[in-house]
Amino acid sequence: MVTERKPRPRSTAASRVSAQRRVSKPPVSAAVDRWLGSLELDDDLGARAAIARALAQKLDEAVGSESGPAAMAAAGIARELRDTLDSIRDATDTEATDFVADIFRLSR
């Protein structure tokens, strides 16, 4: 007689850690939104800001996903986001500080 195997619950240590990260840290998109909100943006920079917001949202989704391809895509999305934020920072009159540090500071 063949017995039917019940699927194991998907609660693994990695998924619990991932869930804790989603709860305990503000999403990248919120931090990027705060940083962009602190800048004076013209139309061109406003368009770049919209791209940065979309990339930040994609990064949040990729980091929060449990799928392998999404996790692998996160690094490329993060690089593209950093390049976009870099171009915004360079085009504004903000100090040449590390905007990533500014983003993390504003997210707290």
The percent range for helix content is over 70%
Instruction: Write the element-wise H/E pattern from the N-terminal end onward.
Output: HHHHH
What's the gyration radius in Å?
Answer: 18 Å
Count of individual helical segments: 5
Query: Low-confidence spans: pLDDT under 50, at least 5 residues?
Result: none
How far apart are the termini? 59 Å
What does this molecule look like?
- The chain is an all-alpha fold.
- The protein is 71% helix and 0% strand.
- The protein has one domain (25-107).
- It has helices at 13-24, 28-37, 43-64, 68-91, 99-107.
- α2 packs antiparallel against α3.
- The longest helix is centred in the C-terminal third of the chain and has 24 residues, at 68-91.
- The protein is elongated and about 70 Å long.
Structure summary:
The protein has helices spanning 13-24, 28-37, 43-64, 68-91, 99-107. The chain has 108 residues and is mostly helical.
Descriptive labels:
108 residues; mainly alpha; 5 helices; 71% helix
Which secondary structure elements does this structure contain, and how are they paired or packed?
Elements lengths: L12 H12 L3 H10 L5 H22 L3 H24 L7 H9 L1
